[in-house]
Amino acid sequence: NEFDDLIPYFKHVKAIVTFGQTAPKLVRAAEKAGLDVIESVDTLDDAVVKAYAHSTDGDVILLSPACASWDQFKTFEERGDIFIQAVHKLI
Questions:
Q1: Domain 4-90: CATH architecture, name and number where available
Q2: How far apart are CA 41 and CA 56, in angstroms?
Q3: pLDDT in tens, 58-89
Q4: Average model confidence (pLDDT) for the chain?
Q5: Is the keyword Nucleotide-binding in the record (predicted)?
Q6: Residue 18, beta-bridge partner list
């Protein structure tokens, strides 16, 4: 799995929420790492809502694209804008 290089870093992660066509590959790497909270959703909006639901005071919710998202967004700027909008809906 091309995401196995991420496994050592999952020890610093409370939860992972994946979406998009490469989500299953990220899920497999997270499972190998023994991560307890692994969620897959359909959209970035849904990912932000799920991440927020798993967070507690002081946690960081990070958009950390591991690959291109041409299946859902025209540009990386659009993806970033949608992330910001989703966060603003929650605060």
A1: Alpha-Beta Complex (3.90)
A2: 20
A3: 998 888 776 767 778 888 888 888 889 988 99
A4: 89
A5: yes
A6: 40
